[in-house]
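Q: Hi! Curious about what S-receptor kinase looks like structurally. Here's the sequence.
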Amino acid sequence: FFVVLVVLILFSCAFSIHANTLSSTESLTISRNLTIVSPGKIFELGFFKPSTRPRWYLGIWYKKIPERTYVWVANRDTPLSNSVGTLKISDGNLVILDHSNIPIWSTNTKGDVRSPIVAELLDTGNLVIRYFNNNSQEFLWQSFDFPTDTLLPEMKLGWDRKTGLNRFLRSYKSSNDPTSGSFSYKLETGVYSEFFMLAKNSPVYRTGPWNGIQFIGMPEMRKSDYVVYNFTENNEEVSFTFLMTSQNTYSRLKLSDKGEFERFTWIPTSSQWSLSWSSPKDQCDVYDLCGPYSYCDINTSPICHCIQGFEPKFPEWKLIDAAGGCVRRTPLNCGKDRFLPLKQMKLPDTKTVIVDRKIGMKDCKKRCLT
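A: Let's find out. The predicted structure is below.
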């Protein structure tokens, strides 16, 4: 009886870590190859090695999808250099320890944590730290606040105005290297908030402002029967998120290492990810490609053109080097100047615009000319 009892206890301890929580008495190690699985077996947390190089990471991936797809990486810029690593709870934080028992990554939460805490992997793909006896949404820390290159349903991108936290995407360095890459996808707030894709610190793409349904520069973000996009702007936050109307449909937004913002949907019948749309959609979608006072037409060659009343600043324009943009043919004459309507155009950058909702088009024109 005693022998059987001991065996049962050991069996229970070995498999308890396969639940969706990690307590302060438990740990994950690379050598034991154990993972944490969300309650509905949708997501899985564990250590992984994405290439032949001896670099190990802690990450989250889809549990049921045969094509291993990572949606979050904890220590993307501080990988373990060998197959000795441990994830545990220490002093109220999740920490990753290397072979010398030295922390190489931590959640770095502040404050006095007095009650027992647990780490939990939710069916949304959110890894959270909470008090042991509190199952509410009041988390001490959550991975959704620190995304890598992927936006999942219910995850937010943008600013938390209460804490000052800016949630943004950062691309991989390469397809199998989760190290922080060159591209980021950030929300810029102003008169009109919009997302910018940056290559290092230079803008290469912008979405345009939100019009209540989609970002005006992203016609591909159209209404769908199974996905709902949402943009919130109030005193507490400025954020973008999306929801799936069917819990059985897996979809994600990803910033690729090549600077493409993409939406993928999993197709079970073909067992592969289907690309729904990608931005920038063509060369004309690139930020400031043709320079000031110009427009871009992908169906012409060259693709850059001056607006009526303007001419190329430099002769290189015809050689498809349009960086200088266009200049006025004649100086302004404020007594005879008028406005030229431009249809089916993506609006220019709105960082410096002035908005007055109390006046109409006629008064707006008058104000611009004075």
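A: A fun detail: Residues 153-280 form one domain.
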